[in-house]
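User: Once you have settled down, look closely at the record that follows, taking as long as you need, and be ready to discuss the fold:
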Amino acid sequence: MKTASFIAAALYAFATPALAQNMPVSTFLVKADALKAQGMMAMLSPDIGILKKEIQAAGLAARAERQAREAAGQPRLACPPEKVSMNSDELIESFRAIPVAQRPRVTVKQAMTEMVRKRYPCPK
């Protein structure tokens, strides 16, 4: 039984970063704007779940990359607290700061990683 649990945990650990759908910021913002336009009806839209999953998967993937860098003895790119919290307005504002021409080529994970890097720089 312990072996099965270990295998399941290992598969989850390796699969979690892959769960990030690599949604471009441009797509994320289009969906977020459409939801905002729907008002309270947005709560019934499947896009809410899609965006939440994208953010969660991107956060998990970024954390896994940070831990891998630390394990490899590489310097940290950012020094966030263990639990980073932000509201949707902050997130969307940081995504909108990306130039429009670049948004289709920047993934949600990349945008979140850059936002965390700017928000939580490591002391020198």
Summary: The radius of gyration is 16 Å.
